[in-house]
């Protein structure tokens, strides 16, 4: 009985020590990950600024004209097409459509 | 008492003395010096740091980043722990691009800390890390970046070295943009590493709010590009373009020339970064006739077909002569606006009378701030009729004796485009917290109705005539109906106090398409050299900007072929 109590006591002590050590170990791990997160966030921000600078309209226009030899569209060269909403089908159109689908179904 | 007993007592006394010393030391450490030692331990184990949330980002209406913070290295030296300052300066100089003597001078000071270079490029930081010089350290600080360079600089403004907004939106929204500051205590071990502080539950200080602007970076670019070209071409002192949505008052572009780069403002003066669109007033000249005409039509003092006599180009008012740029005889009210007759405008103003004209000028927003959400706006100059002279009624009707900002003028004309309703102009449409949640949204704000929809439409037709057959033909955009008005105003020569024949302001203000306005725009060219007529220096800029912006926005031309998507039959 006595030895069981001693063993259990020792186990408790070991468990307590192990728990404390593990908390400290995880603490360091968390800190390392946090530092890594900060570095990654910093890199992300730097890349975002770079992306934003590279996509500036002024730069794109410069590259398009100077490097690629493009020119702004001249008058009348741009046609904007707005698809208009089709009118609702007439009863006759619905009837024809039904006939076609029925004919397809029969085949 | 034998010798052994004596030894026992001696041993006991020795032990008691030993324990006594230990007890004494214990009491000294644990009780008497407890407070001081606890404090010393805390100083060694704990590190207090001030954490600051990142400054909020500024984006345009499509989410394009216009200003954001990035952590960059700042370099400091600890002169007291440097053995060879000259050697350190020799290594640092090529990396920091600072003269060697300058660095060495700083490192020879009897100080524990000196800044060597703040907020440098990350690449420079990497190079310094590789050099690893004793006594030279690096900390990360937030630096404001404006990735688009000079684009929108006058609106964005800039921040100082300490990260506080000094101009533009950065200043106006300082409270909302700056991140939360919080002091945190970290536990550290013998090696100085942070040990599991209140780490898991530690609250990171909140970042500042992000601002979403009404500005469209492409429209802004088009406006800036065309304005720069126009200012260069006319060798003008400066220029301004404002583009806004008439129905909401949302500003799509605000371009000011000369431009500046907010990433490098140290060498510039306030004159360069002043937002002239709302800080500078000018005598509008003939563009003011839009307001006079609106008042006359609304008050039924004039109809588009009412006849006016142009006095053959000369008319005497209060012992002074008013001139027209051409000899005009009888003309309709509409022709008077289209030909921009000063005499006709003066006569219309006289028919309206002082109080009515003043009331309409106030209603259209002159003499008061538009309350746009940008700093530095001025109210302009509009004297009360009590202060008017004998010529004032005529002068004000043709845009003299009154000081306006370009923003006031474009807002007033936008009210005509908006069926007679004056809107409050604004630049920030929304504010979001760091999680992306909308904190504040700006909705279009109606200031007041200034004229009836009928008057607005009648005036629009008259203003279309200015572009089709009047002084503003160079503003015509093929395929679109443009309504607008030219303005040319002489400036007062500061040396003589009289109107100068050489200094003038040429402008054009209008909207397009006239029947369903998408844009209201003003172009102001200050002190152009050579021909200075608004119809010559400003109207073509209106056309070029309008044409490109309408194409960009996908607005169909009136003569555009429309393709209907019709279901096959």
Care to describe what's here?
- The complex is a heterodimer of chains A (107) and B (569).
- With 107 residues, chain A is an all-alpha fold.
- Chain A has one domain (2-106).
- Chain A is built from 3 helices and no strands.
- Chain A has helices at residues 2-54, 57-67, 91-106.
- Chain A is elongated and about 100 Å long.
- Chain B is α+β, with helices and mostly antiparallel strands.
- Chain B has a domain at 217-553: Beta-lactamase.
- In chain B, strands 2, 3, 4, 5, 9, 17 and 18 form a 7-stranded mixed β-sheet that branches. A 5-stranded antiparallel β-sheet of chain B has the order 11-10-22-21-20, sandwiched between helices. Chain B has a two-stranded antiparallel sheet with strand order 1-8.
- The longest helix of chain B is centred in the N-terminal third of the chain and has 30 residues, at 3-32.
- Classes of the chains: A mainly alpha (107), B alpha+beta (569).
- The A-B interface holds A 23-24, 26-28, 30-31, 34, 38, 42, 45-46, 48-50, 52-53, 55-58, 61, 72-73, 75-76, 78-87, 89, 93, 96 and B 64-66, 68-71, 122, 140, 145, 147-149, 151, 193-196, 199-200, 217-218, 221, 225, 478, 547-548, 551, 554-557, 560-567, 569.
């Amino acid at each position: 009985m006595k030895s069981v109590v001693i063993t259990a006591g020792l186990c408790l002590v070991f468990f307590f020590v192990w728990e404390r050590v593990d908390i400290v170990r995880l603490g360091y791990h968390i800190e390392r990950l946090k530092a890594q997160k900060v570095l990654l966030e910093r890199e992300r921000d730097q890349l975002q600024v770079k992306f934003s600078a590279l996509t500036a309209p002024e730069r794109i226009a410069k590259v398009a004209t100077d490097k690629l030899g493009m020119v702004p569209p001249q008058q009348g060269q741009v046609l904007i097409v707005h698809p208009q909403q089709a009118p609702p089908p007439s009863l006759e159109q619905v009837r024809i459509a039904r006939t076609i689908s029925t004919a397809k179904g029969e085949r | 008492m034998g010798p052994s007993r004596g030894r026992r007592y001696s041993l006991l006394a020795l032990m008691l003395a030993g324990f006594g010393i230990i007890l004494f030391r214990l009491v000294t450490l644990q009780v008497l010096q407890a407070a001081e030692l606890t404090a010393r331990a805390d100083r060694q184990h704990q590190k207090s740091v001030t954490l600051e949330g990142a400054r909020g980002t500024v984006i345009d209406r499509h989410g394009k980043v216009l200003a954001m913070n990035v952590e960059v290295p700042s370099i400091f030296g600890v002169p007291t722990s440097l053995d060879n300052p000259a050697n350190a300066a020799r290594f640092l100089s090529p990396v920091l691009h600072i003269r060697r003597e300058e660095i060495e001078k700083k490192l020879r000071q009897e100080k524990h800390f000196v800044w060597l270079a703040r907020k440098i490029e990350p690449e420079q930081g990497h190079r310094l890390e590789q050099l690893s010089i004793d006594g030279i350290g690096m900390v990360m600080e937030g630096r404001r970046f404006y990735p688009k360079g000079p684009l929108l600089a006058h609106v964005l403004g800039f921040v100082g070295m300490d990260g506080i907004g000094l101009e533009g939106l950065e200043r106006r929204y300082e409270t909302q943009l700056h991140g939360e500051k919080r002091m945190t205590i970290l536990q550290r071990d013998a090696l100085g590493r942070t040990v599991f502080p209140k780490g898991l539950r530690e609250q990171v200080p909140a970042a500042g709010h992000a601002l979403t602007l009404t500005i469209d970076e492409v429209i802004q670019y088009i406006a800036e590009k065309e304005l720069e070209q126009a200012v260069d071409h006319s060798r003008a002192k400066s220029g301004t373009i404002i583009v806004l949505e008439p129905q909401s008052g949302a500003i799509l572009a605000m371009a000011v020339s000369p431009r500046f780069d907010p990433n490098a403002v140290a060498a510039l003066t306030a004159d360069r970064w002043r937002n002239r669109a709302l800080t500078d007033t000018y005598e509008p000249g003939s563009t003011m006739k839009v307001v006079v005409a609106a008042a006359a039509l609304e008050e039924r003092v004039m109809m588009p077909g009412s006849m006016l006599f142009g006095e053959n180009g000369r008319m005497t008012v209060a012992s002074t002569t008013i001139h027209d740029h051409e000899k005009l005889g009888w003309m309709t009210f509409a022709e008077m606006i289209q030909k921009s007759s000063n005499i006709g405008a003066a006569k219309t103003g006289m028919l309206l009378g002082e109080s009515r004209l003043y009331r309409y000028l106030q209603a259209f927003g002159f003499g008061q701030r538009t309350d746009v959400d940008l700093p530095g706006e001025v109210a302009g100059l509009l004297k009360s009729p009590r202060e008017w002279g004998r010529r004032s009624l005529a002068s004000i009707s043709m845009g003299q004796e009154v000081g306006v900002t370009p923003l006031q003028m474009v807002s007033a004309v936008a009210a005509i485009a908006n069926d007679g309703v004056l809107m409050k102009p604004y630049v920030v449409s929304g504010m979001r917290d760091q999680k992306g949640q909308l904190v504040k949204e700006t909705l279009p704000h109606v200031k007041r109705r200034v004229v009836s929809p009928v008057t607005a439409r009648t005036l629009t037709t008259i203003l279309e005539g200015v572009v089709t057959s009047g002084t503003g033909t160079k503003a015509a955009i093929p395929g679109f109906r443009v309504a607008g008005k030219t303005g040319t105003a002489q400036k007062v020569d500061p040396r003589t106090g009289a109107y100068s024949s050489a200094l003038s302001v040429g402008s054009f203000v209008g909207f397009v398409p006239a029947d369903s306005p998408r844009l209201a725009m003003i172009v102001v060219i200050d002190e152009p050299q050579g021909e200075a007529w608004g119809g010559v220096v400003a109207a073509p800029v209106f056309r070029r900007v309008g044409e490109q912006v309408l194409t960009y926005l996908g607005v169909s031309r009136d003569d555009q072929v429309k393709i209907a998507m019709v279901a096959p039959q």
